[in-house]
Design goal:
There is one protein chain. By secondary structure, this protein is an alpha/beta fold. The chain has a single domain, classed as Rossmann fold (3-Layer(aba) Sandwich), CATH 3.40.50.150. The protein contains nine helices and seven strands. Strand 1, helix 3 and strand 2 form a beta-alpha-beta unit. The chain starts with a helix and ends with a strand.
């Protein structure tokens, strides 16, 4: 098989899988993202917003909903993610309010992004190799008096009870510990306190908030939920009953699959076998058949002002 073709296919599949998880993250945690946008300590209603590291648009559409008169410049390094975001904007009828820019936020200089009143960066700053430079670039982009909201994750969300699965209790915590050690090698700023770095870049940190998320399935799963249905792409949210359970099950499957790809060579063979059984859609012990899933995570937001 042609190596270039194989590499391209693998990259495209990885990008598609990541986009799927981002879409599910947006859907499952929509209410919590909306609560952050409502909390922002704004002095006036923003008219131009920049979403830095926008992914497939979780923050973009939450901000569009929160500020119906604003337009947003959505910035990401992934052309595939931006294409998906544009498709959602069109489905919502918001294509005139969204402008996409493909750019590497780790680059020394950024393309022109205008002079926004509000900059938003959710789960993107910890990817920066030189976050201090990226923060200075944000400072330079913002209008005087503009607000910068940095939203960061404590880590991957948890989904299983501590005593699950029965044959390997505590599996999820061991997976996360292995994933955290691996990610610390490549993303040392994940889980960092961003307040000192924001201050060093010239910002005044006006407020900070940590949001604890704990979502349960809404009904018992007597039959396996579908984890193959297409993700909702039009930016709307419908998490009642079965749809909510499907979204949580698919979210858990996607996240645990990504963790598996990162730690398969770092965990005990027995843990890998138990994880594969959880990820097996045909197994009666798989995630799709469980009625004890939850979504447990923490997100911290820093609100920083440009003088």
């Amino acid at each position: 098989m042609n190596h270039t073709h194989t590499h391209t296919h693998t990259h495209q599949q990885a990008t598609a899988d990541q986009a799927e998880i981002l879409d599910l993250d947006a859907e499952v945690l929509a209410e919590h993202t909306a609560s952050i946008t409502a909390w922002l300590p704004l002095r006036s209603t923003p008219h131009h917003i920049v979403d830095l590291g926008c992914g497939t648009g979780a923050g973009t559409f939450a901000l569009l909903d929160r500020f119906p008169d604003a337009h947003i410049t959505a910035v990401d390094a992934s052309a595939e993610h931006l294409q998906r975001l544009r498709a959602k904007a069109c489905a919502r009828g918001d294509q005139e309010r969204v402008h996409t820019v493909q750019a590497d936020l780790d680059a020394a200089t950024w393309p022109g992004l205008g002079s926004p009143d509000l900059a938003w960066a959710s789960a993107s700053m910890h990817h920066m190799a030189r976050p201090e430079r990226a923060l200075r670039n944000v400072y330079d982009v913002l209008a005087p008096g503009g607000l910068f909201a940095v939203v960061e994750l404590a880590g991957h969300p948890r989904f299983l009870p501590a005593d699950a699965p029965a044959e390997r209790p505590g599996l999820e915590e061991r997976l996360h510990a292995a994933a955290d050690r691996r990610q610390a090698e490549h993303m040392p700023h994940r889980g960092a306190d961003w307040a000192p770095m924001l201050t060093a870049a010239g910002f005044t940190v006006e407020d900070e908030r940590t949001l604890t998320v704990n979502l349960d399935l809404t009904v018992s799963v007597d039959a396996p939920v579908s984890i193959d249905a297409p993700v909702n792409l039009n930016g709307t949210v419908n998490l009642d009953g079965t749809r909510r359970n499907e979204a949580i099950a698919r979210y858990a499957t996607g996240v645990l699959q990504r963790i598996r790809s990162a730690v398969a060579d770092r965990i005990a063979p027995e843990d890998l076998t138990a994880l594969d059984q959880l990820l097996d859609t045909d197994s009666p012990h798989g995630i799709a058949h469980r009625d004890d899933l939850t979504v447990r995570t923490e997100r911290t937001v820093w609100a920083a002002r440009r003088a």
